[in-house]
Specification:
The chain is an alpha+beta fold. The chain is built from 12 helices and 31 strands. The chain has a 16-stranded mixed beta sheet that branches. Strands 1, 2, 3, 4, 7, 8, 9, 10 and 11 form a 9-stranded mixed beta sheet that branches. A hairpin with a 7-residue loop joins strand 14 and strand 15. Helix 6 runs parallel beside helix 7. It is globular, with a radius of gyration of 27 Å. The protein starts with a helix and ends in a 5-residue tail after the last strand.
Length: about 650
C-alpha cells in the first residue's frame, strides 16, 4: 500500500509541477543597439517608421524614465544579465573582457526553475572581438545561442575580415551573411526556439544590432527617406531601423499565432543613445539617430546617452496604453524584476531591485542610480563639446548630479523642469551639491574607483576641447586662451591644461602623433608638452628652431629643424612603437629618425598646450610660454587606452 501511495504522490507532484511550470510566463527581451530615446515613433518622432514597436507601446506600458547602466553597450548588457553594476563586475566599457563565470545570471536562475533559455543577437560580453578565450553563452545559462562577431559560439558574420578571424577562432558554427540579413536570421532562430518550447516557459532574448553603424540597408529601401532629411546617414539609418522593426513584428505575430500572448511578457529597450563619433562632426557631417530633447548621445552620461525607450507588454496583466512619467528604472533592475514575475526568489546583494509593481501599473520612487563613464577605462567620448560629460553621475528623485573625481565640472539639474540639462543649479543649491558629492564619493569608493572625497566641488570653468585620438578632449583654459579646436591663440602667458584623470595611457610602445599648423610670434615657447624631464615628450620653439624632444628614464633626445621658423608652417611629430621619433615640417623630414627607448611607465605630469606648467621636458632656453597661433592641432594615440 505504501508503494502505491508513493507512486501516486510522485505522479501528483509531477502533475502539480507541470501545471506550475505551465503557469509561469514566457519572457521575451528585446534590446536594440545604439537606438536613442527619439528613435521610435511612440516617443513622438513622426519622421521614422516603427509600427511594430509602436504597436507594443500601445498595448502595454511606456516608462519615460528608464535608464541604461552605461553610455556604451557592453556594460549595459552586463548589468542586464547580472543585476549588478558593470563596474563592480569589471566590465567598465566595451571590449573590456568577459563576465566571470562565477557571476550568477538571470538565464541560469530561470533555467534552474524550468525555463528554456535562448539568446539570439548581439552578445558583446567577451569573445570574438576583444578576447579569444571567452566562455560561450551556454556558460551563462543559455540553452541555445546565435551571436554576431562580438561573441563566440554559433554566430553570424557579415564582415569579410571578421569572417576570417571567426573561422580561425572556431568555437561554433560560422554563418556568413549580408549585414542587412543578420536580424532576419536571428529572428528565424528566435521563432524556431519559441515554436519548439511553446509548451513550457521560455526566456528568449532578441538583441539586434541593425541600428549600430555602419548602416547598410537593402538596395533602394532608403529612397523614401530622402525627402525628410538632407543627411545621407539618416536615410540609411531609417531604412535599417524600419527593417529591424519588421523583424520584431515577426516575433509579435508568431506569439499571437501560437496563442501565447496572454502568458508572454515582452520587454523592449536599447543599450545606449545614438552614436556620436567626433569624426563626422569634424568633417562637417552629422551622425544618424535621434536623442530628442535630451543632451548628449552615446559615450555621454548626459540624458541622451543613458535615457532609453522602454516598453513592457503582457495582455491581461499590464494595462494597455499606460504611460509612467514618474517611476525611475534601470537595466540593473531587469534581472530581479523578471525573477519576481517568474515566481523566482530574487537574489540578494544586487544593485538592481525588483520593479515588477511598476511594470504592472503602480508607479513608485527608487533609490538613487549611479553611473561612471570615461577615464580611466573609456577613451571614447561624445562628438560635440556640449556632449562631453563629467565621469560620474547620480540621479536621486527629481535631481541629477554630475562631477569628476577631482571635484571639477560639478553640475546639478532638476530634470522635471530641465530635461535638456541646460541650467546648472550649482550656485543655487550648495547643500544639495555637497550632499550628492558625498553620496557619489561613497559609491565610487564602494566599487573601488578613485574619487577625492575631501575635495570641494567646483562648477565648470572655462574649457577648450582639442581633438585627441579622434575624440574631443576637454582642457582647462588657463589665462584666457582664445579660440576652439580649429584655431587657438596664445599670448605667452596662457595655456591649456588637461586634468590628470583624463590622461591617455601611452606607455608600453604606443604610436603617438602630434600635428598641426603654427604661426609663431616669438622664437621660443612650448607648443605641446606631456610629462617631465624624466619621462615625457614635447614640441617647442627654441631660438627659432622647431624641436621635438623625448625623455625616457631621464635621458633626453631632441630632433630639431635645421633653420629657424619665421612664418606659418605645418608640423608633424611622431614617436612610434619601435622607438623611432621623427619630425616633419611642411611634410618634409627635418632629419633622419632618431631611435630612442620606449616609455615603460606613464608620465607623471599632465598635458599642456601652449606652455609647460611643470618640470620641463625639453631643453628650453627661455620662457616656456608660446606666443602665436596653433591651428588644427590633433593628438593621436591608440584609442584602446
Amino acid at each position: 500500500m505504501r508503494y502505491l501511495y508513493n507512486i501516486t504522490m510522485i505522479i501528483c507532484l509531477g502533475f502539480v509541477s507541470a501545471v506550475a511550470l505551465a503557469q509561469k510566463p514566457n519572457i521575451i527581451l528585446v534590446m536594440t543597439d545604439d537606438q536613442g530615446w527619439f528613435d521610435t515613433g511612440f516617443n513622438g518622432n513622426t519622421e521614422l517608421k516603427t509600427p511594430n514597436i509602436d504597436q507594443l507601446a500601445a498595448e502595454g506600458i511606456i516608462l519615460d524614465r528608464f535608464y541604461s547602466a552605461s553610455a556604451v553597450c557592453s556594460p549595459t548588457r552586463a548589468s542586464l544579465i547580472t543585476g549588478r553594476n558593470p563596474l563592480r563586475i569589471e566590465i567598465p566599457t566595451a571590449n573590456s573582457g568577459h563576465i566571470k563565470e562565477e557571476e550568477i545570471t538571470i538565464a541560469e536562475i530561470l533555467k534552474e526553475h524550468g525555463y528554456a533559455t535562448g539568446h539570439f543577437g548581439k552578445w558583446h560580453m567577451g569573445g570574438g572581438r576583444d578576447v579569444d578565450d571567452a566562455p560561450l553563452p551556454q556558460a551563462y545559462g543559455f540553452d541555445e545561442s546565435l551571436v554576431s562577431f562580438e561573441g563566440l559560439g554559433d554566430r553570424i558574420i557579415s564582415n569579410t575580415n571578421a569572417l576570417e578571424k571567426a573561422k580561425a577562432l572556431g568555437h561554433g558554427t560560422i554563418i556568413a551573411c549580408e549585414r542587412i540579413d543578420r536580424s532576419r536570421i536571428q529572428v528565424d532562430y528566435t521563432i524556431d526556439f519559441i515554436r519548439r518550447n511553446k509548451d513550457k516557459p521560455f526566456y528568449v532574448r532578441f538583441f539586434p544590432n541593425d541600428v549600430h553603424g555602419a548602416h547598410i540597408p537593402a538596395k533602394g529601401t532608403e529612397d523614401k527617406y530622402k525627402s525628410i532629411s538632407d543627411n545621407p546617414y539618416d536615410w540609411a539609418f531609417l531604412a535599417v531601423l524600419e527593417n529591424m522593426d519588421n523583424q520584431i513584428g515577426r516575433i509579435i505575430d508568431e506569439i499571437e499565432h501560437l496563442g501565447l500572448s496572454k502568458r508572454t511578457l515582452i520587454i523592449f529597450t536599447s543599450d545606449n543613445g545614438p552614436s556620436d563619433g567626433a569624426k563626422k562632426y569634424l568633417n562637417g557631417e552629422k551622425p544618424a539617430g535621434f536623442a530628442g530633447i535630451y543632451r548628449g548621445r552615446k559615450w555621454s552620461i548626459y540624458e541622451g546617452g543613458i535615457r532609453m525607450p522602454f516598453i513592457a507588454v503582457w495582455p491581461g496583466k499590464i494595462k494597455a496604453g499606460t504611460q509612467d512619467d514618474t517611476s525611475i528604472m534601470s537595466t540593473l533592475d531587469l534581472s530581479p524584476t523578471i525573477c519576481k514575475i517568474a515566481g523566482v526568489e530574487v537574489e540578494e546583494n544586487l544593485d538592481g531591485i525588483d520593479r515588477s509593481s511598476v511594470l504592472l501599473g503602480t508607479p513608485s520612487g527608487r533609490l538613487p542610480l549611479f553611473w561612471q563613464y570615461g577615464h580611466p577605462h573609456s577613451a571614447l567620448k561624445g562628438g560635440l563639446v556640449k556632449h562631453l560629460s563629467p565621469t560620474f553621475a547620480m540621479r536621486d528623485g527629481a535631481y541629477k548630479f554630475m562631477i569628476n573625481p577631482d571635484g571639477s565640472e560639478a553640475q546639478l539639474f532638476k530634470l522635471a523642469n530641465d530635461p535638456s540639462e541646460s541650467t546648472n543649479l550649482f550656485d543655487q543649491q550648495p547643500t544639495r551639491v555637497a550632499s550628492m558629492t558625498q553620496s557619489l564619493g561613497q559609491w565610487a569608493h564602494g566599487i573601488g574607483y578613485a574619487f577625492d572625497r575631501q575635495v570641494k566641488p567646483a562648477k565648470p570653468g572655462p574649457m577648450i576641447a582639442v581633438v585627441a585620438g579622434n575624440q574631443m578632449l576637454n582642457f582647462n583654459n588657463v589665462g584666457g586662451v582664445i579660440g576652439n579646436h580649429k584655431k587657438l591663440t596664445f599670448d605667452g602667458s596662457n595655456f591649456l591644461d588637461l586634468p590628470t584623470f583624463r590622461l591617455p595611457k601611452i606607455a608600453g610602445g604606443r604610436n603617438l602623433q602630434i600635428k598641426g599648423r603654427i604661426t609663431p610670434r616669438s622664437n621660443h615657447g612650448v607648443i605641446f608638452a606631456h610629462g617631465d624631464h624624466v619621462n615625457g615628450y614635447a614640441i617647442y620653439m627654441s631660438q627659432g628652431l622647431l624641436c621635438f624632444a623625448t625623455c625616457v628614464n631621464g635621458e633626453r633626445e631632441v630632433v630639431a629643424s635645421t633653420a629657424p621658423i619665421t612664418q606659418t608652417v605645418d608640423f608633424e611629430a611622431n614617436w612610434n612603437n619601435k622607438g623611432a621619433m621623427l619630425l616633419k615640417i611642411n611634410k618634409m623630414l627635418v632629419s633622419k629618425p632618431q631611435t630612442v627607448q620606449l616609455l615603460s611607465v606613464e608620465p607623471t605630469e599632465s598635458i599642456q598646450i601652449g606652455g609647460d606648467a611643470g618640470q620641463q621636458v625639453g631643453d628650453y632656453k627661455s620662457s616656456k610660454g608660446f606666443s602665436g597661433i596653433i591651428e588644427n592641432l590633433t593628438f593621436k594615440y591608440p584609442i584602446g587606452s
